[in-house]
Amino acid sequence: MLAYFIIGAALLLALVIGGQSLAGADPKKLVKALRITAVVLLGAAAAFFALTGRFVFAPPLALAALFFFRDKPFFGGSRPSQGQKSDVKTNWLRATLNHDTGDMDGEILQGRFAGEKLSALSLQQLLDFRREAAADEQTVAILNTFLERNFSEDPAFEEGAGTGSKEQETRARATDGPMSRQEAFNILELESDATTEEIKKAHRRLMKKFHPDHNGSDYMAAKLNEAKDFLLKT
Q1: Most buried of the four, 69, 84, 85, 230, by CB within 10 Å?
Q2: Is the pLDDT reported for residue 76 higher than 50?
Q3: What is the number of other CB atoms lying within 10 angstroms of the CB of residue 128?
Q4: Which CATH entry fits the domain spanning 165-233: 3.40.50.360, 3.40.50.1370, 1.10.287.110, 3.40.50.300?
Q5: Helix, strand, coil tally for the chain in percent (to 5)
Q6: For the whole model, what pTM was predicted?
């Protein structure tokens, strides 16, 4: 009877002490505290039964104490995730997305920056690469995602954010022959009844955005000049 009384008293004391701090406890600290408490109680009980000659109870309690003594989760033996990744390859880029961390990077496969990692390039270099690969829609889409993840708060990115899609659209609409009147209006983002003043104003506005000296594009600057000249002469 004395043995059961000691065990019951110990468990009651543990419940009272633990209950006072249970509500606001950190889950990780709580698990650790419960593990330590279990080790102490089970070890003490095993020692008591061994000292009193009741060896039939001591080994199971000692094994239970060793179980709680392990620095491992109570259930399951799974390892931490090794990180699931998705790989996408285009003509210009081999990109990787880590699903666990959300980190994204890529290796450039051709052009001026061939062999470089996206993460190793500056914003200006990334914008240059985007202009270089503007005809490849998939590459531009992946690169825009990388830019938004890493440079969304950079003012320079905001200024050059639309250059890739605009240039891509202009290249897609371009014809092999001379520029048409409708194409010129599209490049300057104007309606077909735009006035001379509106043409000049649109040209100035877009040149500020696409000029090579402001993270713009040589191709777009040339197209804007050609569109303005064409419309003012016709």
Answers
A1: 230
A2: no
A3: 17
A4: 1.10.287.110
A5: 60, 5, 30
A6: 0.39
